[in-house]
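task queued by scheduler; priority normal; single chain, no ligands, no partner chains; default sampling; output format set to structure tokens
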Amino acid sequence: MSEIAYVRGDATVPLGKGVKVIAHVCNDLGGWGKGFVLALSRRRPQPEAAYRAWYRDRAAGGFGLGAVQLVQVERYVWVANMIGQRGTRTGSKGVPVRYEAVDTALGRLAGEVSGLGASVHMPRIGCGLAGGKWSRIEPLITRRLTGRGFAVTVYDHGEGAG
């Protein structure tokens, strides 16, 4: 069983050799415009375009909580759009992140990563605008990915991250 590697850096520019998947959490409303996705879109337009098309065709495309969409952005780099939050605002049902959906998405991601022979790179998913707690997300990553032998690197960006 491997452990999550924590580094200071930019998850949109994954470190290391070989095939890499940048994983992040999206909402179920088709909204793309705040948080990590902005940094992602500054570097590569394909994940946003694919996510928006997926949302538009949601009735036929399997879009929903727990779903994963893999988008190739370079020869050896993919982005995993994972639907892990209900809406975008904290309300009567709590914060937007849905831990069960993140868990399901990570399980699906494991299958994709296995097929690609890839390592996984991510910010602290579900913990920014989605309002989640890393103490609840980290064990999901351990169970679904590192516990099954997949290499995972989590990036803390800038000062005060962590």
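post-processing summary
- The mean pLDDT is 93.
- The radius of gyration is 14 Å.
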